[in-house]
Design a protein that fits this description.
By secondary structure, the chain is an all-beta fold. The strands form five sheets. Strands 1, 5, 9, 13, 14, 15 and 16 form a seven-stranded parallel beta sheet that branches. Strands 2-6-10 form a three-stranded parallel beta sheet, with no helix packed on it. It has a three-stranded parallel beta sheet with strand order 3-7-11, with no helix packed on it. β17 and β18 form a beta hairpin. 40% of the residues are buried. The chain contains no helices and 18 strands. The protein starts with a strand and ends in a 5-residue tail after the last strand. The chain is globular.
Length: 166
């Protein structure tokens, strides 16, 4: 469980995200569950920028790397030029196999109009772009644990972690 708030800006040729700028998975399994980023991102030219992750890649060597991102959301706008997505700026797998990067039950504020940059190797299940008001509704986050992990204030704020997780 991890979160970040605040705005991020970078110059040309950058990899920036509301939570992670660059994620590389080598020969292991990485799972990111229950996370969020609240803040806008601004880049220069030829950048990879995403509301949650700027650039994610799996590199195959001796093992079988894979990653999963689930129960996460991003609320910031993403501006600049290059590969940009409201959730993920760029997704790459050295084998061009979409089964190694899996995203599920994750959401982003609809700014650019795409969760992921146009190119990429990934599988997305139950992921969507939402309006600001819908991202404040508990009903939007189907399957999320609002009893023990998440909380929202009468559907007027974005979800945050229960005090025990902060």
């Amino acid at each position: 469980k991890v979160y970040a708030t605040g705005n991020v800006s970078a110059a040309d040729n950058a990899m920036i995200g509301g939570l992670f700028g660059f994620v590389q998975i080598d020969n292991d399994t990485t799972n990111l569950t229950d996370c969020y980023a609240q803040g806008s991102l601004s880049t220069g030219t030829s950048s990879n920028a995403g509301g949650l992750i700027g650039y994610i890649t799996t590199v195959h060597g001796n093992g079988s790397p894979s990653s999963s991102v689930s129960n996460c959301y991003a609320t910031g706008t993403v501006t600049g030029s290059g590969s940009r997505g409201d959730l993920v700026g760029y997704s790459y797998d050295t084998t061009a196999n979409s089964t190694y990067q899996q995203f599920s039950n994750s959401y982003a504020l609809s700014g650019l109009g795409n969760l992921f940059a146009p190119a990429g190797n990934y599988t997305a299940t139950a992921c969507s772009l939402e309006s600001s008001s819908d991202l404040k509704l508990q009903a939007t986050f189907s399957g999320w644990n609002f009893g023990a992990i998440w909380t929202t204030s009468a559907n007027t704020t974005y979800p945050t972690f229960q005090a025990a997780w902060q």
